[in-house]
Each structure stands twice: as C-alpha cells, then as structure tokens.
Write a structure and sequence with these properties.
- It is built from three helices and four strands; from the N terminus they run E-H-E-E-H-H-E.
- It is α+β, with helices and mostly antiparallel strands and about 100 residues long.
- The chain has one domain: 2-Layer Sandwich (Alpha-Beta Plaits), CATH 3.30.70.100.
- It is globular.
- The protein starts with a strand and ends with a strand.
Length: about 100
C-alpha cells in the first residue's frame, strides 16, 4: 500500500531563496527515485519561510531507503544548514472512507 509523506521545513530568513532553488535542483532526482510516485511543494500563505513537501511513495520502506541515500550524498546536511529547526517528517496511510 502506498504512503503519503509530509516533509515540513522552516527556513532561516536568509536562506529561503537558496532553499527553494535547492529543492528545484534536487527534486527531479527524487521524482525519478525508485518508489516515488510524486512530489508537490507548497508554501504557507501565512509564513513564507514554511514549506511542505507532499510526497507519495510505494511504501515507507521506499522512502526510508531514499532518505538514506540523500543522507549519504550530503544533501540532508546541506538542507539542514538552511533550516531554523529540524524538519518534521510524517507518514500517512490512505483510508477507504
């Protein structure tokens, strides 16, 4: 069963444009990664430093493997340096309601 992942980040004020540029550069690789079914980035209307990546993955295991790869490449550390606080990652199942 697929999983929806919400990755929420809070940028440092001086890094928001660099953060957006970085996401634009690295998300094509994310979208092409095994198990990724799509990624959308949304910005908070009330806080321009707050972004959420809404991602759809084949499974949580696929996402965790992807996250490990991003860590190995140094991308997570580079992104983390642009943030004012640690990112929030939440996992959701589709419900048949």
């Amino acid at each position: 069963m697929s999983v929806t992942v919400f990755l929420e980040v809070q940028s440092k004020p001086e890094n928001i444009e660099e953060l957006k540029t970085t996401f634009k550069a690295i998300l094509p690789d994310t979208r092409a990664y095994d198990g990724c079914q799509g990624v959308q980035v949304v910005g908070n209307q009330d806080d321009s430093l707050n972004l959420i990546l809404q991602e759809k993955w084949e499974s949580r295991q696929h996402y965790e493997k992807y996250l490990g790869w991003r860590d190995e490449t140094g991308a997570l550390a580079a992104l983390g340096a642009m943030l004012s606080q640690p990112p929030s990652i939440r996992y959701y199942d589709d419900l048949d309601i």
